[in-house]
Write a structure and sequence with these properties.
228 residues; mainly alpha; 82% helix; globular
Length: 228
Amino acid sequence: MKIMLLGKDWKSAATATIVDSGVYWFSSVLSGVAGCIAAAVTLAHSRYVGTLLAITLVFAVSAGLLLRKKPLLAALIELLGRRAPAWLRKGAELEQQMRDFRESHPTALRRMVFIGLACQILLFGEAAVVIFLAKLPVHLLSLIGIEALVRVTKMTAGWIPARIGADEGGAVAAFLAFGFAPSTGLMLALARRSRDLLWCVLGLSWLAWNSHQARKNRSLEVAPCRSS
């Protein structure tokens, strides 16, 4: 949908979409690393420490792969040789375009990273507001740790349609692990679900209105031609 709305140039639209998603995931990975470390410190005497450290390692490796200068898919294609499928070759081409964008537009990429980090801070603030409204103590390490656990749940449950039930269950488990009331986690998940639905309604409404205006303009352009 993003590629289609960005214009007719498929390659440029795909590159812009992938760069945008890659930068956001990079900022999310950084906040995930901080969150797992905070959770490991807060839950130092629990059975979750080993799991949290393993997740931190996965996040760190993911960040390293995103920062890697040499393309990954090109090396895989070279390894497979003629057996490399067409979709993998197309993916390698997009990856190269993404890395070329990073080299040719460092200032724009840096701004995108700052925007991504600002988004992560807003997500932390959203969780803090929900905890505050539930009249629970807001501790920075616990807040960052809860957000990291919720994010891990979202990543692992991405295959579930709309992550129905997964977000709610993950938030409840995260709050329970830090000694908070499970109902607060459910409240956070439902608040975010409502926010997502609101943006979907606004986006689809704008898309419908914009499509209607485009058809109206085309009909007005065709009408003078027919009259002439």
